[in-house]
Amino acid sequence: MTNHENTPMTTTTNEGGKGLTEYEAKIYDRSIRLWGIDAQAKLRQSKVLFIGINGLMSEIIKNVVLAGVDSITLVDSHIITTADLSAHLFITEDSVGKVISTESVFAISELNPLVTIDVYDKEIETMDDQFIKNYTIVVMSDKNLNNISKINSLCRKNNVSFIFSHSFGLKGLFFSDLNEFKYFLKLPEGTQEHTSIFKSFKESMGYDWSKTNNRTPLPFFALSTLFQFEEKHNRVPDNISDSDLAELKSIINSSIEKFNFKNADSNKYFDETKDLLNKINVEISPVCAIVGGIVGAEIIKIITQNMQVLNNFFFYDGIKGTGLVEQF
């Protein structure tokens, strides 16, 4: 089942408009008690675009749909293989050979029939301002960091919130760019307005390595290295290509020299880069669930604007069982 590029297939619809209907108020009663009716009304007016419907994204979608957004749009023409079954919530063995976005619709609709689900057959290269500005937030998972940077730039230009999230075996991360984000905290003395300033993905990837410290997660250096390679070659490095691996090592050495990163162990960063590259398609269910839960919570905070958000990277290490927020 394939859709035309600019005509979505609407699978389920809702009756929501501005505010909440009496039926919606009953359905979302527990959520309203948690974050308030104004926040729930904002959720019911929000539209979320998901690009890349992998196992991690299925966890994120689950949390967002259960929270009660107005609509979601799925973009991913990937044909399902048996390898996709290990961590994905919405597909089964019968799904193998089918398009992952359309095959996910039924299971998503069962989570919350009030949420509209659209599917677009659209390539990242064809996404433009007109398409992106229709959404409240764009959530993306893609192994090609050039694609991440491209969509982030479009979102930033159109003042649309952006999140990138991916897992690499027992490790996972997310990056957020909310441009200039205003949020409101309700305190006993009254409501306070706060503003957080975010950097773009490209800016963060150019962060000065010498300003990091011993607690900075190694995946940051690996991402920066991979981004520099992909920006030059417009492709993901081949993990079994001697020339690609040699160039990655060269990029690391150049970054150490450029930023005057004293006492840096280039082998440590190279090993981490290879590890992420080797596991770029490896998803483990518990890691997806943990990172997906955190990203889902962030999306709710971004839409409702009633809590402080994480700025701008979160790294999860399933080996150590730790998570760390860093700003680059």
Salient structural properties:
12 helices; 11 strands; 9-stranded mixed β-sheet; alpha/beta; two-stranded antiparallel sheet; disordered N terminus
Summarize the structure.
This protein has helices at residues 22-27, 29-35, 37-44, 55-67, 100-111, 129-132, 145-157, 201-205, 218-233, 242-258, 266-278, 285-304; strands at 9-10, 47-51, 71-75, 116-120, 137-140, 161-168, 171-177, 180-187, 190-197, 313-317, 322-326. With 328 residues, the chain is α/β, with parallel strands linked by helices.
Strand content: 15-25%
What is the count of β-strands?
A: 11
The structural class is alpha/beta
Radius of gyration (CA) equals 20 Å
Adjacency order of strands in the biggest sheet:
1-4-3-2-5-6-7-10-11
Q: What is the first-to-last residue Cα distance?
A: 42 Å
Major sheet details: 9 strands, mixed
Shape: globular
Unreliable stretches, pLDDT < 50, 5 or more residues?
1-17
Q: Mean pLDDT score, rounded?
A: 93
